[in-house]
Design a protein that fits this description.
Order of helices and strands: HEEEHEHEHHHHHH
Shape: globular
Strand order of the largest sheet: 2-1-3-4-5
Number of strands: 5
Largest sheet: 5 strands, mixed
Length: 295
């Protein structure tokens, strides 16, 4: 057992047994050995299920949307990206800060579970794609921090390399690239369901009247869905990479999100989303000095 796991269990046990919180969200080991999954614990005797390792990918903040009826405070363990997800939900008025007890865990970077498949513990496993672009490995909001803060690691970013390659393409070539990607989409909505920025109680894609999105799975409908979602989270994406990790057909969704993030930061001089829950998003407000070159 590593030191962080031990501290997690001690902290959770104390919070539950003292009645300070009604529920604890963390991670536990699944099957096979490299899988870690969300854990929901409401009894002190169950805290030994909690772990923190290199496969705790799930951004636990999204689960708060399903726990609004819980009586009492909810404690949850958060990495840097998870903590930005909490700020995202607070900013969107989906959860209240006083309902939460946030326990921060500095994240040294996670490993790719797909690369771990077929390997044994101790084998070399490559870094997870979602961690290659991480700018905030340390939680940005917390009530208690476990462990020492870690430096931002500079890793080779496959996402940024893809964006640079796409920017050099002619418009028709870029269209063909994304058409090929979106043609594989199953319309399973895993990207939407796992995203903290996609937190509407009723999604426009699920509405029958008016019907914004047809039921047929074809390129046009898939393009409409993905581009609509990309614009919906523009300026609000917390860069957790969960959408791309959850995609069963490996569409490079973070290249699309990252391109919009880069453009918004360049156009508006904005800091990344999810750092300050009090600040309005750049596309959610109007300033007289906003740039108009694109109009």
């Amino acid at each position: 057992m590593n030191e962080i796991t031990q501290k997690m269990r001690e902290t959770a046990r104390g919070l539950l047994n003292s009645g300070q919180v009604a529920l604890v969200l963390g991670w536990e080991k699944g099957y096979p050995w490299y899988k870690s999954a969300p854990a929901f614990i409401d009894r002190g005797e169950d805290v030994d299920r909690l772990v923190f390792d290199e496969f705790c990918h799930n951004n636990l903040s999204k689960y708060l949307l399903d726990l609004v009826a819980v009586e009492g405070r909810i404690a949850l363990f958060v990495k840097g990206c998870d903590s930005r997800g909490i700020n995202r939900l607070i900013q969107d008025n989906q959860v209240k800060r006083e309902q939460l007890y946030i326990i921060g865990i500095p994240c040294p970077g996670l490993k790719d579970p797909d690369d771990a498949a077929g390997k044994k513990q101790g084998d070399e496993i490559k870094d997870a794609a979602k961690c290659q672009d991480c700018r905030y490995p340390n939680p940005v909001v917390y009530d208690l921090l476990l462990g020492e803060k870690v430096p931002v690691a500079k890793r080779s970013s496959e996402t940024q390399a893809l964006i640079e390659r796409l920017e050099k393409m002619k418009p028709d070539e870029r269209y063909e690239f994304w058409a090929e990607q979106f043609s594989r989409c199953l319309r399973c909505y895993a990207c939407r369901n796992i995203c903290p920025a996609c937190n509407c109680r009723e999604c426009v894609f699920d509405r029958a009247t008016p019907e914004w999105l047809g039921k047929a799975n074809n390129l046009i409908e898939n393009q409409f869905m993905h581009l609509t979602r990309a614009i919906h989270v523009a300026g609000r994406c917390i860069e957790c990479g969960e959408c791309e990790r959850a995609c069963p057909v490996n569409i490079p969704l973070m290249a699309l999100n990252r391109k919009l993030i880069n453009d918004i930061e360049e156009l508006f001089g904005e800091e990344p989303a999810g750092l300050d829950p009090e600040k309005k998003t750049p596309l959610g407000r109007f300033e007289l000095d906003d740039p108009e070159k694109f109009m």
